Amino acid sequence: MEFASGSINVVLGRNHSGKTNFCRLLAGLESAATAEITVDGSPLEGRDTALVYQAFVNYPHWTVAQNIASPIVARGKRDSHKVKELADLLQIGELLDRLPEELSGGQQQRLAIARAMAKSPRLLVMDEPFVNLDYKLRESLLGELRQLTRETGVCLVYATSDPRDAISLADQLLLVDRQEVIQAGEPLDLYQHPVSYQAADLMSDPGVNRYSGTEFVRPEHIHVTDSGDGWGLATQGLIAGLETNGAESFVHARVSVPAGDIDWVARHPGMLDFRPGEPCWLCADRADLLTVPAEN
Question: CA 282, CA 172: separation in Å to the nearest integer?
């Protein structure tokens, strides 16, 4: 695999799938994974990489400025201009005199990224860095990562279990399952052409619904209606539960399909006028059926 300068390469997998082993390998730490890693044909060295974890690892008794400067000072240098430049890029330029305990969670994570970038790495590795942050803050930081790679040319490898992060952020996407890369490529291609059930399910939130032994349909392609007329695929179901955030609703229903009597989840725009226990129709276009080998 090749990762280009200035590119964002997302590793998507569930817990214990191998994401952290992969990140540790790239960062030069002890790992169960093995590989030959080169940068422009030369072996990868520690100074070429920086690693950011999901936990906020900042020096508590140093100011923001001192934290960012620490990799520079460790090399026997001083560069206050670079410290200020990185702080401004990560939107903490007005906080240079504060201690980490005086920062919000998002500001602390920005600080950890700025300190990692102070190494001037060729490769920045991030292992689920925003998993503990609220949704709006994550959205903001994901946008800042795109700006960071564009302005610095750093190659970013970003591990996550959230397909929404993966699809919105990645130039190249690696799907990992059971300690192996099961598919790699551009996000849209992987979404439209999964090579296996595992790949299709990883790219779906919630997971894909089984229709037959080898056919599946994504929750966002299911329409919940009071009639099945006019649809290529229509099955009657009984609503078991609803979740909504206003913008979209998740409908849990029991359906009878060729695969048997099973539970489906539909991801429907807006709010629905259905109640648990009521019958409904769950419909989709035939073109939206995914045909992939069944899971092992």
Answer: 33
Three-state DSSP class for 180? Answer: strand
What local confidence, expressed as pLDDT, does residue 220 receive?
A: 93
Vertex 46: Cα angle to 40 and 48 (nearest 5) = 40
Taking residue 180's Cβ as centre, other Cβ atoms within 10 Å add up to 11
pTM flag (> 0.85): yes
Which H or E element spans position 134?
Answer: none
Predicted confidence at residue 268, as pLDDT, reads 86
Distance of CA 67 to the CA centre of its chain: 27
Distance separating the N- and C-terminal Cα atoms of the chain? 26
- Cα→Cα distances 53→23, 108, 159, 256, Å: 10, 12, 10, 44
80-89 and 135-152 helices, crossing angle to 10°: 130
CA dihedral 283, 286, 291, 296 (to 10 degrees): 10
Distant-in-sequence, close-in-space partners of 90: CB < 8 Å, separation ≥ 6: 110, 111, 113, 114, 117, 144, 148
Neighbours of 67 (CB within 10 A): 25
**pLDDT per residue as tens digits for the range 96-154:** 999 999 999 889 988 999 999 999 899 999 998 887 777 777 788 888 888 889 888 99
Q: Helix, strand, or coil here: 191?
A: helix
- Determine the Cα–Cα distance for residues 206 and 168; give it in Å rounded to an integer: 17
| Cβ–Cβ under 8 Å, residues 101 and 60 | yes
β-strand partners of 156: 8, 124
- Residues 28/48, Cβ–Cβ less than 8 Å: no
